[in-house]
Amino acid sequence: MTKPQDDLQPWYERQSGHKTSRDNDYRTPYQRDRARIIHSAAFRRLQSKTQILAIRQNDYSRTRLTHSLEVAQIGSGIVHQLKHSSPAEADFQKWLADDSLIETICLSHDIGHPPFGHGGEIALNYMMQSHGGFEGNAQSLRILGKRGSYSQDFGMDVTRRTLLGILKYPVLYQNVVGTYPEKHTNFRQFKASQWAPPKCVYQDEEDLLNWILQPFSEDDKTALQTVRRAENDHAKATHSGFDTSIMDLADDIAYGVHDLEDAIVLGMVTKDMWLEHLEPKLSALASPYLAKNLNNIRTQLFSRQSHLRKEAIGDLVSWFITSCQVIENTNFEHPLLRFQVGLPEGQRQALSLLKQFEMHHIIQRPEVQMLVYKGQQMLLEMFEAYTADPNRLLPREIATEWRKSQEQGENGLRIICDYMASMTDDYASRMYNKLFVPSLGSVFEPM
Length: 447
Fold this sequence. Notes:
- 55% of the residues lie in helices and 3% in strands.
- By secondary structure, the protein is mainly α.
- It folds into 3 domains: 28-242, Hypothetical protein af1432 (Orthogonal Bundle), CATH 1.10.3210.10; 252-366, no CATH class; 370-436, no CATH class.
- It has a two-stranded antiparallel ribbon with strand order 1-2.
- A hairpin with a 7-residue loop joins β1 and β2.
- α17 crosses α21 (425-436) and α19 packs antiparallel against α20.
């Protein structure tokens, strides 16, 4: 393997300091990172975790796993586009992620998401509110850096640059958490809109965050961890890394375009809805591409012919990918922070309109929100039961971890939260039935 340049070397490092000792293994560190993600149990579980709740009623619609694969494909497409559409001597080219790295980051970006989508995230945050909170990206970082299965102490023990790429919100919980209302005594009164988590890194992972940011100057670290404050709400991180910006954009494209396809196929979005609520806003953007292609895109999307629908989806994704551009923020010194990838204003607004349309007309539909509520109620009740008597109810391996946590002076709730966050939708449903439905569950059913 070619020896990395000195300024790239710190990004190949792992927390453990481990370097491969296998004979004739010529893979790069990022290729090994990708293999660790793909072969992990946490990644496999994404096949049974919700992407958009309520459309998981058949074998066609997307899951967190298929979504992650699509994000990886789009992320690789963005990298390829930037590499070949820009001068080879451009300053960012040396720092542009290779395919293995960007695929690793994209494949693992949702690896910490709990059952029942963002609804499950809010429910776990509610239960952990006095104990450091719960947030999906923070959980992904925890799995990769502490809780994965490839190292006793360092999780998946992936490279520093992979961890930096996952780090969407490089700020600690205590620096961004806002105020919450007083909790009700009855879970039925739980109001999800009041309990959204702050976007952050858990306080428990402060040492991991410091290790990831170690190669940056103090000025860069300070600028990277700048937050935007809002009265009575969570503060928000304002910056992330070069690789993260690619992953985040690929995630938005996959959500805005590919998830729309599921909704159209299943009849949740109709041509009339498109014409009334979305197309007028897209037409108003004065985009040459949309002015030329919007009629054809609409016709193909609602043609009920899969090859035409796929053509329209592919055209939209291609338009966003080929529009990507590198933006330089001279407030940062290091290239991995100075460079970001974004869209021109017209394309950015078009993607935002697609996402808003899906949020309002799919995710916020009452029939969808009823299922979100049901999943949240299941997690709230299960969490309460597990914390009431962990030794009795937790699987033996998890109960052992909980006891060790207690012995170390901790309250053990983070261990319970890790366990519940790892559950698939199906597993969580089975465990709920086993705990609370007298007619269901058996001593012979494995936990």
